Amino acid sequence: MKQEKILIMGAGGQIGVELAMALRKLYGTNNVIATDIREAHPLLDGAGPYYTLDAMDANATLDLVKKEGITQIYLLAALLSATGEKNPKMAWDINMRSLLQVLDLGVQEKLTKIYWPSSIAVFGPTTPRSETPQKTVVEPRTVYGVSKYAGELWCQYYNQRWGLDVRSIRYPGLISWKSEPGGGTTDYAVDIYHKALEDGKYTCFLSENTYLPMMYMDDAIRGTIELMEAPVEQMKSRMAYNLSAMSFSPKEIAAAIQKHIPDFTIDYAPDFRQAIADGWPQSIDDTAARQDWGWKHEFDLDKMTADMLMHLKEKKMLDVKL
């Protein structure tokens, strides 16, 4: 069997850093090439092959694919929801052009697989908000959501037209202790842990009872790899799969933190991100992923909170020593 050689584009982002580390454990360090438009993230610096690459540069991407003998691409480069609303046309251009270039490259170079992440941002205020189904009304109200749903359709089209094996997940909000927030509406659920340890208080940009689907990064990375490793005959959908683990509000995550830090306090100052959150689902039905390729989450809110605080404390102590 031919050795897979994987290219990760956008490896410096919240998902990319941990996905690169996990894939290197699975495929071998030298078989996973990490790239980003910026210098290497500290966790990736010196830890394996790394190139500075602009995902919008089709020629440079093609040259790297040929040079390294790439067989799979994970395209993670994108402008996220809150950042994208500040410059919608640029967000559309980056999110769409980078995808279409990689899809064309996949056909041209006969890549074995492509991974491209979607998001719950594809849903909108007309979508059923509770247990949002895999197939439902889709009317996104952010440029990020519009670009993600358009991207899903392009991925399906390239699979149907050229047989390109493109796979995708609609991620909920992702929470990790290893990387910083990347400009998303759900990023409060990362920042709140940092502020709890540093300041003992947090001002949330969403209202206290704003429920959103969330997932611990450990589950997200495992789920992504399980999707990509699943036999092709199990891919019953070529749109992105719904993926879910838990759903909670700022008030509930604060209560989970208070079990470990009793004096922690939270207040609320909703901003423009509240309107974005109000248009998204409160919970997700991921039955299709569970049935088609065996998805199963491991972390709930309390288990995640304990793990987040433990690792962030360890990280803080290490930083002090350094």
Describe the structure in your own words:
- The chain is α/β, with parallel strands linked by helices.
- Helices cover about 45% and strands about 15% of the residues.
- The chain has helices spanning about 15-25, 60-70, 80-85, 90-110, 145-160, 190-200, 215-230, 250-260, 275-280, 285-295, 300-320; strands at about 5-10, 30-35, 50, 70-75, 115, 120, 165, 170, 175, 200-205, 210-215, 240, 245-250, 265-270.
- The protein has a six-stranded parallel sheet, sandwiched between helices. A three-stranded parallel sheet has the order 6-8-12. A three-stranded mixed sheet has the order 9-11-13.
- α1 packs across α7 (about 215-230) and α6 packs parallel to α8.
- It is globular, with a radius of gyration of 19 Å.
- The model has no long low-confidence stretch (mean pLDDT about 95).
Structure summarized in a few sentences:
With 322 residues, this protein is an alpha/beta fold. The protein has helices at 14-27, 58-68, 81-86, 88-108, 143-162, 188-198, 217-229, 250-258, 273-278, 287-293, 301-321, and strands at residues 6-9, 32-36, 50-52, 72-75, 113-115, 118-119, 166-167, 169-171, 173-175, 201-204, 212-216, 241-242, 246-248, 265-268.
The unreliable regions are none
The tally of helices reads 11
Overall shape: globular
**Content of β-strand:** 5-15%
Radius of gyration: 19 Å
- What's the order of the H and E elements? EHEEHEHHEEHEEEHEEHEEHEHHH
For the largest beta sheet, what order do the strands appear in spatially? 3-2-1-4-5-7
Percentage of residues assigned to helices: 40-55%
Structural class: alpha/beta
- Give the strand tally: 14
Distance between termini?
A: 45 Å
Overall residue-averaged pLDDT value: 94
Sheet of most strands: 6 strands, parallel
